[in-house]
Every structure is written in structure tokens, then in C-alpha cells.
Specification:
Structural class: alpha+beta
InterPro entries: AH/BAR_dom_sf (IPR027267), BAR_dom (IPR004148), GRAF_fam (IPR047234), PH-like_dom_sf (IPR011993), PH_domain (IPR001849), PH_GRAF (IPR047225), Rho_GTPase_activation_prot (IPR008936), RhoGAP_dom (IPR000198)
Domain SH3: 611-669
Number of strands: 11
Subcellular location: Cell junction, Focal adhesion; Cytoplasm, Cytoskeleton; Endosome membrane
Strand content: 5-15%
Helix content: 40-55%
Keywords: Cell junction, Cytoplasm, Cytoskeleton, Endosome, GTPase activation, Membrane, SH3 domain
GO biological process, one term: signal transduction
């Protein structure tokens, strides 16, 4: 298992679990730094100590064998596996040193240590310093008497807010830097190693034979490094963009917690004749009404006590005139005597705790509404143009083309052969169309299944699973996907002219066709597997577009309740791209006039046809968890099955009762 992804939203909670995950990254950086120092030392010995060449070779190889790359996420791509195989090369590949070995190996490694790892260490010092400062200021602030002047209290509140904001910004920057160095070392460290090894092979007295054996691996590794670098650049920009969003609107990007409420609270504990306030990290589950407290201080960096938990009986706001502390509320427990007085971190924090625990103060709930965006699409010839789909068109021209093509009145008059429309304008319009769909073309419903398929160890199994999943997509989505993939396969066949290989097209279209429903660091780290899915679709497009595979090849769907959970949290509209307007041009550009006419006629019949009144058979068993759903076993036949207003669900009749059925659980008869 690799290193866990560090979510920016966790910087605001600053939980014990987040600190532990951050600590694992820090230990890995320390390990990497120590290893590189040893590697540089051994490399110099290898170059300078001709008399002890044999010993230096063995030590250098041993150092490499002891080190293993730790990738962020729960799986590695083929490219990362290929890169990870380099350190296990044996000592017999090291011949006499080359003249410029220091420039090839030592200097890049020293530069990586100084520019990257040292920067991460400085960020760590700054983070630790800000942690102590914030905790100290917060404790001092919370100790202020409520009887102070209002102006004095207001000034103190502003000061704490400024310190807290600065701490959050430093925390975000530190998390970003730590993960950047972890990813960057995959190529900044391996690339000089690869160059150094290649130089050694060249000057070895058996260099020809060794280089011949190494050549295939070197080619694969070079491609893997380039692919990893490309994915890093794409991932880094996404992570950096997410970090900026977190800085600008931290409250809009907080993670969805599995708990009803969690965070730090100060609990009043009475001992003898005095009372003290002790800091706990508390979590509250609304369903069992269970509160769990862990004694923890971020300044010390670890737990200092056992977990305590109790069942909530009541929660009451504490009036300011009854206690000198601010932001307090009283909690009574079913299985614990007495009343516990707790202090929140601010008035807003107390409001949220009170709302979660059904306290006396009524609190409103601010929801959110998803904006619906217009959808459009298009493409073009110019198959040999270099950088096809990578070079971006002028935004104003792209929007004009989309506007004309989306309008039924002007769609037929758009002539893409006209010199007014550059190739980059047309390709940018296609990407923009796919990007602004309410959901990705390959749907949120199957996004995780496609990623899971790309992580399979066996290449044939990957193709088989992805083939099956493509045929589980809604008909219009699958039809549009097949159009696009066939076109991209044609583009890839001309890669010697347009420089757009299958891997390059995967980088361009992976994040668009399989974008996640929630933007997190972990999701961004899966972009490389999104790219792999698109690569497989292009490389095996003839098989994927072939006959529908048997049902047993399909990846098992999730729990029956999962679509409902997604529906309630993210009320998205159905994601079936329109096959008219821009789509008509999209089809005509990818195919000959005869093929396009046939396909458009078939598409029209799909649009006007209705599935009302059809029968369907259940592929899997499902137990209803809501009154609106149907329970059934595998093989059940449903009557009058038709589309539901709920995305990802159908409506059908079973034994005289009509209810919802998960769309991915049935096949139409």
C-alpha cells in the first residue's frame, strides 16, 4: 500500500488522523533525503576510487536494492512499476566510470536535494512554528473573560482569525509541497540515474552485449518517465488549482465527513477545588447520538489519552452571564453522570455543534444548487497537424463556433472547411463540449468501475472489464464515445506526423471523459488511471466497439443504496449528450457521408423511440433501503420499465407495485 493522499480539506480540521498521514509523508521524505545523500556519496566513491571499484559497485547496488518508491494512492500505473524496477538492477551492470559521471549523476541528485527536499524541510519548520503559534494564541484567546469590553473582545477575535487564516494557508502550502516532492522524485531522481547507467554501459568492455540487453528496458523506461512526467504536470496543475480554491473559499471545499460533526472542543474538568479546560478532538454521530473524545494536542504531535465515548441525552447553550468563558454549551449523557461544559472555538463553531446535536438554538441550513450549463460539441480534419488537440484555440473563436453549432437555425450553415475555422478552434470546441456536459461522457455511475478496471494487474483482464463497462453505458453515451474513440484512433495512427501518441491523447481526454464527481487530491491522483482507460479504449477500439460481452464479465456494481446516496447528495441531471446540432457535425466530421447518414438515422430512431412498456430482467439481487425502491432477486422480470426522473434509476412494476430499480442492475428483454 502506498502513501495516503493528503486532502486540502483536512488542513482545516487538523485531525489526529491527518497528522498521522502527514507524518508518514515526512518520514518518507526523510528516508528519501537520507538515501540520496548515501547515493551521492557512493556515486563519488564509484567515480574516484578506481582501486576499490568492486566494493563501490556492490554498495551502490545494495543501496538501490534497499530503496522502494512509495507512490501516492492504492495502486501503481504500469509506467510507475517500470520506473520502480530500476533500483533493483544488480551490481554486475556497473563497469568503469565515465569521464563526466559527476555532471550526469552527482550534480542532478545534489540539485534535487537542495532545491526540492530542502524546500520541503523549510516548509515543515514553518508549519511546525505556525502550529505552535496558532495553538498558543487560540488558548490565550479562549481564556479571555467574557466581561471584557466588547471592543477588546472584537479586536481579540480579529487577531485570532488572522492567525488562524495564516496557519491554514501555511498548512495548505506545506501539504502541497510535500506531495509535489513525493511525485517529482519519480522522474527528477530516476532520470539522472538512467543517464548514468547508460553512460556506464557505453564504456564497459562488454558494453555492447550489456547495452543490447538493456536497450528494451531503457526504451520502456524512457517512455514511462515521459508519461509519468506528463501525468505529473497535469496532476500538479490540478492540485495547485484545488489549493488556490481552498485558499479563496475554504468553507466551500471542506470534505464531506462520515461523522455528523467533528473538531476540537475544550472540556471543563473539575479537580478538587479548581477546574481546568482540556483540549479534546471530538466526533459526533447523529444516528446513534454517540460522542467520542480523544485527548490530543497538535503541538505534541500525538495522542496523550484513551478514547472516551458516551451517548448524548441533551445539549443546551450556556449563557454568557453564567460563565466567564465564551462559546460554551452544556452536554448531558445517558450513560455518564453530571453535566459536561464544553467550549467551541468560535461562535460559528458553537452554532454548528448545537445544530448537529439538536440543541435549543434553531440554525438554518445553507444548501447549494448546481448550475446547469449548455452543452455542445464538434471536431475537424487536419489529421497531420502537430499538437492536434493539445494546442488550444482562441477562446472567443471557440465560443463563437459553439454558439453557431448549438443553434438549430445556424447549425446547418457552419462550414468547417472555411478558413475562418482553424483546426485548433475546432478541436478546442470538441474538448469544451465534452468538458461542460452536466456529467462526464462515461458517467459518474461507472467512473470508479473504470478506474478499478485500469488498476487490474493483467492487461487482458483490463481490456475485458473496460469492454464490458462501455456496453453498460447509456445508449447515447456509448454511441458518442464510440464516435470519439474511433476518431482518436485515427489521430493516433498519424502520430509520426501530428506527434499525438496514444499516451498523449490519454493525457488530453482522460480527465475530461472520466472526471470525478468530487474534486479531491485522491481523485486527482487517479487521473493517471483515467488516462490509462482512454489509452486502452483507443488501442483496442475495434474490440471495445464490437459485440456486447456476456453479463458475467461486468464489474460487480456497488450496493443497491449507493445510487440513492449519490442522488441525494449530488442532484445532477441525466448525462445523455444530445445527438443533434453540434453532434450532427461531430458525426459528419468523423465519418464518410454514407456512414454518417446511416448513423444519424439510427441516432434519430433512438431519440424518438421510448422504452415505456418494455420488460427487463434483474442481473443481480437488491434489497431496498427506501420506500420508493423495489427489492428483488437475480432473474426477476419487471413489467412496464421506463426511464425515471432520478439519474441512474429506472421505474418498473413488480407484483403490482411500482418503484425504482438501479439502472445498472437490469438488462432489457
Amino acid at each position: 500500500m502506498g502513501l495516503p493522499a493528503l486532502e486540502f480539506s483536512d488542513c482545516y480540521l487538523d485531525s489526529p488522523q491527518f497528522r498521522e498521514r502527514l507524518k508518514s509523508h515526512e518520514l518518507e521524505l526523510d528516508k528519501t533525503n537520507k538515501f540520496i545523500k548515501e547515493l551521492i556519496k557512493d556515486g563519488k566513491a564509484l567515480i574516484l576510487a578506481l582501486k576499490s571499484l568492486s566494493t563501490a559497485k556492490r554498495k551502490f547496488a545494495d543501496s538501490l536494492n534497499e530503496f522502494k518508491f512509495q507512490c501516492i494512492g492504492d495502486a501503481e500505473t504500469d509506467d510507475e512499476i517500470c520506473i520502480g524496477e530500476l533500483p533493483v538492477m544488480k551490481s554486475n551492470i556497473f563497469p568503469r566510470p565515465i569521464e563526466n559521471a559527476s555532471d550526469v549523476l552527482i550534480m542532478p541528485l545534489e540539485r534535487f536535494r537542495k532545491e526540492q527536499i530542502s524546500a520541503a524541510k523549510e516548509a515543515r519548520k514553518k508549519y511546525d512554528k505556525e502550529t505552535e503559534k496558532y495553538c498558543a494564541v487560540l488558548e490565550k484567546h479562549l481564556s479571555l473573560s467574557a466581561k471584557k469590553k466588547e471592543s477588546h473582545l472584537h479586536e481579540a477575535d480579529n487577531q485570532v482569525d488572522n492567525v488562524r487564516q495564516h496557519f491554514y494557508e501555511v498548512s495548505l502550502e506545506y501539504v502541497f509541497k510535500v506531495q509535489e516532492v513525493q511525485e517529482r522524485k519519480m522522474f527528477d531522481f530516476v532520470e539522472p540515474l538512467l543517464a548514468f547507467l547508460q553512460g556506464l554501459f557505453t564504456y564497459y568492455h562488454h558494453g555492447y552485449e550489456l547495452a543490447k540487453d538493456f536497450n528494451h528496458f531503457k526504451t520502456d523506461l524512457t517512455i514511462s518517465i515521459q508519461n509519468t512526467r506528463n501525468r505529473f504536470e497535469s496532476t500538479r496543475s490540478e492540485v495547485e488549482s484545488l489549493m488556490r480554491k481552498m485558499k479563496e473559499n475554504p468553507h466551500e471545499h471542506k470534505s464531506v465527513s462520515q461523522h455528523t460533526m467533528e473538531g476540537y472542543l475544550f472540556v471543563q474538568e473539575k479537580r478538587s477545588f479548581v477546574s481546568t479546560w482540556v483540549k479534546y478532538y471530538c466526533t459526533y454521530h447523529r444516528e446513534p447520538k454517540r460522542i467520542t473524545m480523544v485527548l490530543f494536542d497538535p503541538k505534541s504531535g500525538g495522542k496523550t489519552g484513551e478514547e472516551e465515548s458516551f451517548t448524548l441525552k441533551s445539549c443546551t447553550r450556556r449563557k454568557t452571564d453564567s460563565i466567564e468563558k465564551r462559546f460554551c454549551f452544556d452536554v448531558e449523557a445517558v450513560d455518564r453522570p453530571g453535566v459536561m461544559t464544553m467550549q467551541a472555538l468560535s461562535e460559528e463553531d458553537r452554532r454548528l455543534w448545537m445544530e448537529a446535536m439538536d440543541g435549543r438554538e434553531p440554525v438554518g441550513y445553507q444548501g447549494y444548487q448546481l448550475e446547469h450549463v449548455k452543452r455542445g460539441n464538434l471536431s475537424s480534419p487536419g489529421i497531420d497537424d502537430q499538437g492536434l488537440y493539445r494546442i488550444v484555440g482562441v477562446n472567443s473563436r471557440v465560443q463563437k463556433l459553439l454558439g453557431l453549432a448549438m443553434d438549430p437555425k445556424t447549425c446547418a450553415d457552419v462550414e468547417l472547411e472555411n478558413s475562418e475555422w482553424e483546426i485548433k478552434t475546432i478541436t478546442s470546441a470538441i474538448k469544451h463540449y465534452l468538458r461542460v456536459l452536466p456529467g462526464p461522457l462515461m458517467t459518474y455511475q461507472y467512473q470508479r468501475s473504470f478506474i478499478k478496471a485500469a488498476k487490474l494487474d493483467n492487461q487482458e483482464a483490463r481490456v475485458t472489464e473496460i469492454h464490458a463497462l462501455v456496453h453498460r453505458l447509456p445508449e447515447k453515451n456509448r454511441q458518442m464515445l464510440e464516435l470519439l474513440i474511433k476518431h482518436l484512433a485515427t489521430v493516433a495512427n498519424h502520430h509520426q506526423q501530428n506527434l499525438m501518441t496514444i499516451a498523449n491523447l490519454g493525457v488530453v481526454f482522460g480527465p475530461t471523459l472520466l472526471r470525478p464527481q468530487e474534486e479531491t487530491v485522491a481523485a486527482i491522483m487517479d487521473i493517471k488511471f483515467q488516462n490509462i482507460v482512454v489509452e486502452i479504449l483507443i488501442e483496442h477500439h475495434e474490440k471495445v466497439r464490437g459485440n456486447r460481452p456476456p453479463p458475467h464479465h461486468v464489474l460487480p456494481p456497488g450496493r443497491c443504496s449507493q445510487p440513492h446516496q449519490v442522488r441525494r447528495q449530488h442532484p445532477l441531471p441525466p448525462v445523455t449528450p444530445p445527438l443533434s446540432g453540434l453532434s450532427t457535425l461531430f458525426v459528419c466530421l468523423f465519418f464518410s457521408p454514407e456512414s454518417a447518414q446511416n448513423l444519424l438515422s439510427h441516432s434519430h430512431s433512438l431519440i424518438v423511440s421510448s422504452i415505456a412498456g418494455r420488460k427487463a430482467r434483474a442481473l443481480y439481487a437488491c434489497k431496498a433501503e427506501h420506500n420508493s425502491e423495489l427489492s428483488f432477486i437475480a432473474g426477476t422480470i419487471f413489467e412496464n420499465v421506463h426511464a425515471s426522473r432520478e439519474p441512474g434509476w429506472l421505474e418498473g412494476t413488480l407484483d403490482g407495485r411500482t418503484g425504482l430499480i438501479p439502472e445498472n442492475y437490469v438488462d432489457f428483454l
